[in-house]
From TrEMBL:
The lineage of its organism: Bacteria, Pseudomonadati, Bdellovibrionota, Oligoflexia, Silvanigrellales. InterPro entries: WD40/YVTN_repeat-like_dom_sf (IPR015943). This is Beta-propeller fold lactonase family protein.
Length: 620
């Protein structure tokens, strides 16, 4: 077993063949790499992107391979079976959801298709309808946080829950009074294109249960709006009436501002728009061609637009979607470990390297003492125990279960270990209720610790600790509610000279933090405020914190953050959820945060999640 898992590679930013662009990840150059202390080494993962285009008049879907260098489509084939006048498509994990309009019937359906993980073809498509739900003049479909949203042109939106096996259930129809076509969800709002009234309506979404609330009209008018797509604080609207695509800024209250036509002069009655890896794909209901435009990173305008047609296309194209297959010759699998504090258990979940979604969560070990912090190092998982200051070390087996768990004695003066970090030859732990930082000598041969002592000064209820260069960053909770910057002695590992940051807001409730470093760019520290929002601060050249502000993640009750595979994971422990967000490397803000934990929570409803660690395991 040890021979197979001799080393666990820690994953940083996935280096692909293309540049990131207008799809929300910021404007990366080919030399920009994101890393963190726990994922310092970039790993070469090959990602292949497939684009789906719905052919309504043929009742088929075209599946094409995207060329990352120019956005071109090739190797297009027809795929899917049993479709009936399809009009929209949405992809969630390994399933495609296709809306069957059935000639504007009151008995529309949703086909659920399994996506082949080797070639992205659609298989075993069924009109899965466990609740016997019918869709009245179904038009658009999207998904968000494991809910499926379907627009009904009769003036309603249907919301269904998605299961990990791809099925949907518990569908509820909300009468909005909006005869909507396209739908997109951003910033806890559902935006639907109001075709008849030439506007876009926005509806409030309850993030806790996905329910739809009050709808109101946006101020800007379009001419027969159809498709809609959000990228950070930019929205694109496909306007059928004048064959234009409009780009608008989105204000903090969700209104559209500074709207103007962008890209081609004529999109030939555009139906949908989708941004994929820095390119825009606009389908047409009159030309039988798809228009492909480059998204300009400096101003998000569309340019260099060209039309493309393949023999697999119909003459009447509707929705579009994409699917990514990630492969690697060096990675066997990626797994995340989650501690369920209230159950004294650890769970492990498979991580999809293409989407960062977690699935198939299983119990990895039990009998712990209120497990909290988790840290993977080598073949070992280190677990902080909430009820005492000791740390449990477990061996990660070839089946990813935990075995050989031993309690590592630290110091009788420690308790409630909220965080664990290994830096060089030392292991550090935060002892929350004892107001201490523990420093132990770490043996990198057998993973043991010894000689634990207290370090640091002016420490009050330390929640988390992170390191960058000669500085340590400590978040503190009850009684202090702040973040301190400390000096680290490179020889002894001792922490001293801690000064509370004035850039981080007084009275906030900081919890478990992480730092990301960007080559050719800044370093950001992310500090969750569990009763407010997730903060983002810039680490200045002298190590101090500056420009602290809301990261714009929009996630309720954030407790822990962890960078992995090009995205920042955000855990909300009391909600039992885990989301992954795209990082804009120019600003450090977050966007396109989606629910990554599919079995939410893996321990069952009501359990309290606490720690989170993730890593990849190499092929041998």
């Amino acid at each position: 077993m040890n021979a197979r898992l001799a080393t666990i590679l820690l994953l940083g930013f996935v280096v692909g063949c293309s540049k990131s662009g207008g799809s929300g990840g910021g404007s990366n150059s080919s030399g920009d790499v994101i890393s963190s202390n726990q994922q310092p080494t970039p790993l070469d993962i090959q990602k292949r992107t497939y684009v789906y285009l719905v052919n309504r008049d043929k009742s088929t879907v075209s599946r094409c391979v995207m060329d990352p260098s120019n956005g071109g489509l090739n190797q297009c084939i027809t795929t899917g079976n049993g479709l009936n006048d399809p009009i929209g498509i949405s992809v969630n994990n390994d399933f495609a959801y296709i809306a069957n309009n059935k000639k504007w019937s009151t008995g529309g359906t949703i086909s659920v298709c399994q996506i082949d993980k080797t070639d992205a073809t659609l298989n075993n498509c069924t009109e899965d309808n466990p609740d016997k739900t019918t869709f009245n003049n179904v038009a658009g479909v999207t998904n968000y946080n494991n809910y499926l949203y379907v627009t009904n042109y009769n003036g309603a939106i249907t919301k269904c829950a998605l299961s990990s096996n791809g099925s949907y259930n518990s569908c509820k129809v909300v009468n909005t009074g909006v005869k909507s076509i396209g739908i997109a969800i951003a910033n806890k709002l559902a935006y639907v294109t109001n075709y008849d009234n030439n506007i876009v309506n926005k509806c409030i979404i309850n993030d806790a249960d996905g329910s739809i609330g009050t709808c109101s009209a946006n101020k800007f008018s379009f001419l027969k709006p159809n498709g809609i797509y959000f990228s950070n604080n930019i929205v694109y609207v496909a306007s059928e009436g004048d064959s234009k695509v409009y780009k608008c800024n989105v204000t903090p209250d969700g209104e559209f501002d500074n709207c103007s036509a962008t890209g081609a002069d004529n999109y030939f009655s555009p139906r949908s728009i989708n941004l994929i890896n820095g390119f825009a794909y606009i389908t047409s209901i009159s030309s039988g061609k798809v228009t492909i435009c480059k998204v300009k990173s400096s101003d998000n305008n569309l340019n260099d637009c060209n039309q493309f047609r393949d023999e697999s296309f119909g003459n009447f194209q509707e929705g579009s979607a994409s699917y990514v297959i990630a492969t690697s010759s060096t990675v066997k699998a990626a797994y995340a470990y989650v501690s369920a504090n209230s159950l004294n258990k650890i769970f492990y979940c498979n991580v999809n390297l293409a989407t960062n979604a977690l699935s198939g969560c299983k119990e990895a070990g039990s009998g712990f003492n209120s497990p909290s912090a988790l840290l993977i190092n080598g073949n070992n998982l280190y677990i902080g125990n909430k009820n005492n200051g000791n740390i449990t070390k477990c061996l990660i087996g070839a089946d990813y279960n935990l075995s050989g768990c031993n309690v590592l004695s630290t110091n009788a003066g420690y308790s409630d270990s909220h965080d664990i970090k290994i830096v060089g030859k030392y292991l550090y732990l935060t002892s929350y209720f004892n107001n201490k930082i523990g420093k132990c000598v770490f043996n990198d041969v057998d993973g043991s610790i010894s000689g634990c002592v207290t370090t640091g000064d002016d420490i009050v209820h330390p929640d988390s600790i992170e390191f960058k260069g000669s500085k340590a960053y400590i978040s503190m909770g009850d009684g202090r509610h702040g973040a301190s910057v400390c000096n680290v002695d490179p020889t002894t590992g001792n922490i001293s000279g801690c000064v509370r940051s004035t850039a981080f807001g007084s009275g906030w409730s900081p919890t478990l933090i992480d730092i990301i470093n960007i080559t050719n760019g800044p370093s950001y520290i992310y500090i969750p405020n569990e009763d407010k929002y997730l903060s983002r601060c810039v680490i200045a050249a002298n190590g101090d914190l500056s420009d602290c502000k809301d990261s714009e993640a929009g996630i309720s009750n954030p407790y822990q953050v962890k960078y992995f595979n090009g995205k920042l994971y955000v855990m909300s422990r009391n909600l039992g959820t885990l989301s992954s967000c795209e990082v804009n490397i120019q600003t450090g803000t977050l966007s396109n945060c989606v629910r990554s934990l599919q079995d939410t929570p893996p321990a069952g409803n009501g359990s309290k999640l606490h720690g989170f660690a993730v890593s990849v395991f190499p092929n041998k």
